[in-house]
Amino acid sequence: FERKKRELNINLNDVQKRAVEQTEGPLLLLACPGSGKTTTMIMRIGYLIEEKKVNPRRIKAITFSRASARDMMERFKRFFPDCVPVDFSTIHSLAFTIARSYLEKQGTTFELIEGGGKQKQSRTKSFLLKGLYKKVMHDDCTDDELSALSTFISGIKNKMIPLDRWDDLVGPFERAGRIAQKYEQVKKQTSGHLLLDFDDMLTLAEQALKEDKELGDRYRNKYDYILTDESQDTSLVQHKIVEHLVVHHGNLCVVADDDQSIYTWRGAEPDYLLEFKKVYPNAQVLMMERNYRSSKEIVELASKFIKKNKKRYPKEMHTENSPKEPITIKQLDNPKSQLEYVTYELLGEDRLNEVAILFRNNSSSTMYVNELHRRGIPFYMKDADDKFFSHWIVEDILNFMRLSFNTERKDIFAKIVLKMNLFISRSMLTQFENTETSGNVFDAFIKTVDLKSSQIKKLKEYKDVYDKIPDMRPAQVIRIIRYELEYEASLKSRAEKFGFRIDSLFGILDILEGIAAQLRTMVEFANRLKELEQAVQNAKFNPPENAVTLSTLHSAKGLEFRRVFMIDLLKGIIPADEDEGDIAMLEEARRLFYVGVTRAKEKLELLSYGQSEGKSKEDSKFVNEVRSLLLKPNKLQKEQQPVREAKASIPLNPNGIQDKKELTVGTIVMHRVFGQGEITKQQGREIHIQFGKVEKRLDIEFVLSKRLLEAVEV
Ligand code: ATP
Ligand code: MG
User: Fold this and answer.
1) Whole-number pLDDT of residue 118
2) Which ranges of the sequence are coiled-coil (predicted)?
């Protein structure tokens, strides 16, 4: 074991050593990011097997997510290639096994209603919740309400609040507690058969361990040692399951960092750790404060930053690591320049698998996916957001476009007329659909349906707009749909009525425009969306080697990268608007930011932008704080991108101009970094290109050999 540690170049410090060797009895390891919690946990498992000769099958390691189970398994195999690996799994999968035995024993059948897969559409959690919402509220449930409701239910079940008290709870909206109660009933309607969501597994497993002595003992006798990582995000019901399992031996090692607790909104119970000694009076509590992961700059900044939280277990994170690179804070002009900056930097990286782009919201990823895919930069996404491509806004835009190919298509018209800013009612539409008509749909609609003069006027205008669409580039068409066909205005009025978050909807339109920007036709655009959806699937299930990681801050927990870009660090995003005014939520937002910062080993870049779609944007207050925390505050710079040679390992753009003859004055080109410009002059070894307001002189040979320019047809 000693030799192994030397080989791995890991010289355990005193506390780590104690945590490894103190195998018997309860142990809480409360420690800073990068202090070796996960490493220690793996070493402890290795020590149990190699030194204490414990059968690996009698050790259970519980991780937070399936991804971290995989991550830990890989680390374990790297450390102990000759050992039979122990069982690394999530608490959910353990709970599922227990719950299944319990139900089988009782002769109860069940079906899962969450998590995708085989279940019928009418038997999914969202479908049931939507139906109950309608029954109780006499209205349709919006996407935002649905997800809030689902999180609320998850939270109360994880907190083990008894069903009869749900009604009194303050939920995301009035009567959410009532809907939640009904949801519980609906799932139990037929006797001998249950509908189960993920949280039910936990509840059932806990109940089984508590009430069924025979079954409980079976699982209690199954493991002699239990270890749980990232326990700051463990909920009460999950803690209880663990408590039941260790009753006989008390050999429990709990590893946590309360400063990285980022799931309280889903019912995580970090306070439990502070009570650990009450539950396990003979517990040892160890602290680890030395960070082995990050450079001095990063550790010092992070440590100062997290101390602003009032509610925390005091710790002093420090490091012996040397300084590496200064922390970068950049406010770029707009989302596009931020994207260009990041991609340009990636083009200069050989080892992309050591780099991550982290964001607060999944919606940030789509623009990056588009750009990385276009440039052939390999990427990996752990929790890819493929829902974007099936969002109803995306469907709407495609339908608006489809109609332009044939303005006689009643079926397509029917899909979008209610989405135009016309206040057409469903009954008017039905009347139209039931009447035999021919020719242009706008004319036919005016002829068939009894309309106000203002509606007729608009329909005529829309018809004229449609006449000019077919030859246009897709980005322009999207703008026309937004403004001339008034899709945005209608979204706004519907948002008011149904309470959507309008910013996120407009954000989707911006992303679509971004994707369309480099394309020539609407067909190309539709195909591109398909292609990207596929690319996202691949990035998730089939990631290429040496790929840059795209991840939300939440999913990046526990991981480490040499270089980290944190993007879209804006006011309203982190902290989110809904965090403002709530101290607990602001503290959680700070912890989330802290998780991001502490992922970086050598280089941390905090990025934001000054405006988007003509609206000016403010930096996240966390960014401002970091600015003032840094010893020599970086000035707020709108930096020029440095011209730097892209490394040869980066694939060249196959459509890039290779022949000098194509570089004639007047040609419109797309530069892989500077964007679209016009060639204004050719002089000796240089060409001059006007990019917006800036003219750049570029070395012709360099530009050709790196295929930096692509011709754009106008
Ligand atoms: P997080 O809170 O982010 O999950 P952690 O506390 O689990 O972090 P680890 O991921 O285990 O930290 O370790 C961080 C890094 O420090 C890893 O690269 C690990 O190899 C290294 N490390 C940990 N302990 C030591 C040690 N004693 N000597 C050298 N390197 C170490
Ligand atoms: Mg860890």
Assistant:
1) 65
2) 515-542
